[in-house]
Specification:
Layout (H helix, E strand, L loop, with lengths): L1 H15 L14 H29 L7 H27 L3 H16 L6 H21 L10
């Protein structure tokens, strides 16, 4: 439980800061999208914390919700965070399939993990895998498929 929660939270932080925000904020047309989009990012981050607390309550028999419901309390906010992060931040850097493709796979795997035991551990692993892909994509120049730095 703890490992999955730490993986999720640290991955969120690192995914958010994997690209410089200043590079895209020079254009006035993205200001409202950037600003108001952060409501979803911050809200989802807070909801993940509440979801992890619900999972602890479930594991310690202090909750009356089912395993599926408490799992959804984690996976739902993670999906909102990932989609919001892509729409508000990553898409502005690179909206190509090399960023939305891995994101779509991560979202699908996160939703599927709702039905798996130890959901938070699986979701943490998905977030770490997405982070590795994102860091590799952020390091490559746009339009160059095989370039490595």
């Amino acid at each position: 439980m703890v490992t999955g929660g730490v993986l999720i939270v640290f991955s969120f932080w690192w995914l958010y800061f994997s690209r410089e925000g200043g590079e895209v904020l020079t254009d006035n047309s993205v200001g409202y999208q950037w600003g108001f989009g952060h409501y979803f990012i911050y809200g989802a981050g807070a909801a993940v914390g509440a979801g992890l607390a619900a999972r602890i309550d479930h594991y310690t028999d202090h909750s009356e919700v089912t395993d599926l419901v408490s799992s959804a309390f984690v996976t739902g906010p993670v999906v909102v965070f990932l989609l919001s992060l892509w729409l508000v931040h990553i898409r502005l850097h690179d909206a190509s399939a090399r960023t939305w493709g891995p994101l779509a796979v991560a979202v699908a795997a996160t939703v599927a993990a709702t039905w798996w035991p130890y959901t938070e551990l699986w979701v943490g692993a998905v977030c770490v895998a997405l982070l590795v892909v994102e860091l590799r994509m952020a390091a490559r120049p746009r339009g160059v498929v095989g370039a490595a730095h």
